[in-house]
Amino acid sequence: MEENCLSTYVMSDLHGNYEAYIKMLKKIEFKNSDMLYILGDILDRGPNPIKIILDLMKRPNVEVIAGNHCVMACECFSFLLQEITEETVAKMDEEMIEKLLNWQQNGAVSTTDEFHKCDKSTQREIVDFISDFEVYDEIEVAGNIFVLVHAGLGNFESDKELWEYELDELVWKRPDYESKYFDDKYVISGHTPTMLIESNPRPGFIYQANNHIAIDCGCSFPGGRLGCLRLEDMKEFYVEGDGENNHCFKSRSVGRRAKLHPDKPLPHITPHVL
Prior knowledge:
The protein is of the alpha/beta class and 274 residues long. It has a single domain, classed as 4-Layer Sandwich (Purple Acid Phosphatase, chain A, domain 2). It contains eight helices and eleven strands. The strands form two sheets. It has a six-stranded mixed sheet with strand order 7-8-6-5-4-11. The protein has a five-stranded mixed sheet with strand order 3-2-1-9-10, covered by helices on one side. Helix 1 links the parallel strand 1 and strand 2 (35-38). Helix 3 (68-80) packs across helix 5. The chain is globular. The model is unreliable at 249-257 and 261-274 (pLDDT under 50).
């Protein structure tokens, strides 16, 4: 790559691993002229999810795609923004209790702990920032078109437009890596740690097959790492993750975008492990 050339990077599933995130930015020598896409799940599990969010809020050249952990957080932030008292807890309905328990079971402790340490103004800025995440994007880089999504177009249909996919299909449902979705596009997704993809010859590293590119390299798992892909030349970068300190484990836009808004109804989310 030429030294002053714009570079486009993609990573995903940071899960609160601030140190790995900063190390990766240094490793790729990320510049103000570059563009970074993060395919969801910055929050939860690792020790510093809010610290990552606060850093991202200062970076206009980073776009975040919403993941399932972002959705769970947005469903619960309205409650967390209140002063938590015995009275507010007593007024919680069963739906909110279920959402909070679901989020907690999926590693919310580190997020809520850091969130409560922020003042109310900062908390609201954080909520507004996360609520504005895209739920997918489509970009063109070096003549190639990439669909960017957290989970990977669940229930794929060849005649289905991106905007027709339900939120659950974009942030929860996993793709079929054995099926080629597009001949003229690549689908880049996170969500599924690549060490869990049976056909992956390099478990824990970026996986490419059938125009799928899976980039969640298990940063939040013991022995996992953070992966990053430069789209101009498809060069891969890696830094070791921080799974041992995990709270759970002790370009150019060419397509439509859709945003995640907390004031719009979200589908019921069934608890998942990942």
